[in-house]
């Protein structure tokens, strides 16, 4: 696998998908309104929805304030997604690493 491509495991769900499907669509809020409400460019929100932009601490704080959630929720979802993507992309290299103290 080349470093230029990103393999997305079947179970990996970007937090932008969760934001859109579980928070915004049920409330009837679109990306433009979210962008206006939290003070971010609409393009950034569109990229989060598309899964091409990560949710950083700044965005997590803004989302949490607007949606009444904890910012840690958004950071946890992003970290989980990043771990799943990275784990899948370096699986062979990880398997080649001998754990300290022997096998697991």
Describe the structure in your own words:
Helices cover 62% and strands 0% of the residues. With 104 residues, the protein is mainly alpha-helical. Helix 1 (15-27) packs across helix 3 (42-50), helix 2 packs across helix 3 (42-50) and helix 4 (57-67) packs across helix 5. The two termini are 26 Å apart. The relative contact order is 0.15. The mean pLDDT is 92.
List keywords for this structure.
104 residues; mainly alpha; 62% helix; elongated
The gist of it:
The protein has 104 residues and is mainly alpha-helical.
Number of strands: 0
| Alpha-carbon Rg, integer | 17 Å
Give the overall average pLDDT: 92
Order of helices and strands: HHHHHH
Helicity range? 55-70%
- Give the N-terminus to C-terminus distance in angstroms: 26 Å
Overall outline: elongated
Structural class: mainly alpha
Output the number of helix runs: 6
Give the low-pLDDT segments.
none
Largest sheet: none
Strand content: under 5%
Describe the secondary structure blueprint for this structure.
Layout: H1 15-27, H2 31-38, H3 42-50, H4 57-67, H5 71-89, H6 91-95
Helix pairs in contact: 1-3, 2-3, 4-5
